[in-house]
Amino acid sequence: MYQKYLRRLVKRTIALIYRKKVNVLVILFKTITTIYLNYRIKCNTMNSILASVKNIILVASGSRGVGKSTIAANLAITLSNEGYATGFFDADLFGSTIPLIQDFEGIGPEIAQEGEKIIFSPPIKFGVKIMSLRFLINKKDVIDLKLIASNMLIQLIKNTNWGELDYLVFNLPPGNGDISLTLAQKFPGAKILIVITSQQTEITKGQKIIKLFKHSGFETPILGIVENMSYFIPEKHPDDKYKLFSQEGGKQLSKEQNIPLVAQIPFVSEVFELGNTGKTIFDSSNMIIKEVFHDIAKKINKKSVNPSVISQIL
Fold first, then answer.
1. Residues 78-96 pLDDT 10s
2. pLDDT tens column, 246-259
3. E strands present in the chain
4. Domain range 53-312, its CATH number among 3.30.420.40, 3.40.309.10, 3.20.20.30, 3.40.50.300
């Protein structure tokens, strides 16, 4: 990785010298200092926060209402069911409560003091270690703390005893807000899943969120696109499939952005009903939805890294 920063240093220095805007020594000093500090920041963020986590998945969307939180939660549970040590962090502070933490009223992480540092041991549900700022403060307080939410989340992630994890799944807030940008910056070794529906408005919002992650200077690769509520299969006619929207949004966005279409998830009303009672797709009688999530987990695992994610930037 040193070579990449050295190449960047040489290119930037040559460009500035060619323009003859300032003294060569001043250019070299400023450029070396800037690149070195950026490099150290990246190393420190990964080293100090999640050194024991092998893979980080950021689940994002352009807007609310596309089923992002439900997909993120059930993906974490599916990975756990596949035998992977999995954690889940709910970073969507201002959205609806996700199924994973609905049954956690009055329950939260165990809290211990280590010197001057407070350590949180996350509660476990469905085999998944779960953490959310909502465990510590109520919803009204979260809204009041909106301006400093990113810093609070990072501190909570740092102070959580995750142990050894194969996967840590983040449920990001929708859109291109500060929290999503901060987490993408802090975890350059992570991979992003973009959740959309096939409506034209959602395709447009999907384009914007992809552009954000592609062109904002982050090194966070986009793993793929998940098209939710793609089609409907009548319970009494399992061989019939009906498109809910006329557009092929997932395929269109995949081709346009050169990003894999990871899955097309069917609309299953039972999944929403289960989610409202703190249950998951594995409590459903619908085999198709389970197969879809197992397929997503399989595709993610194929593209995952075995060593700790920090090795990607050292």
1. 999 999 999 999 988 776 5
2. 677 888 888 888 89
3. 53-61, 86-90, 110-114, 117-121, 124-125, 128-132, 165-171, 191-196, 222-227, 231-232, 242-243, 261-264
4. 3.40.50.300
